[in-house]
Specification:
Number of helices: 2
Distance between the termini: 57 Å
Structural class: alpha+beta
Order of helices and strands: HEEEEEH
Shape: elongated
Number of strands: 5
Length: about 100
Amino acid sequence: MRTSAAIFTLTATLAAVLQPMAAQAADGEEKFQLRDMIVDSDGTTHSRLDRTFRGLRVLGGDVVVHKSRTGTSKGSSLTLRAKPKAETARISAKEAAGKALFGGF
């Protein structure tokens, strides 16, 4: 595949992958960012996206979207399907730092 064609295919694939996820996370708390993409010899793409919630990385929240050479969805792989919950801190930042640094748990 020529470089210019590869860049166009990558851009088109990213738009197709990110658009549904952006709609799902329309409240602005969740974001998905492309980490990498693998293209198989038959043209199938596997796009890995990292997930953040309120600016923090969601551990185990990455998503892999699989698309055929023609752009048809072949499914997705994800661990966390539910939206992360926002919790309120029960101790101050200073107290947390003290416990973390000096083993106060």
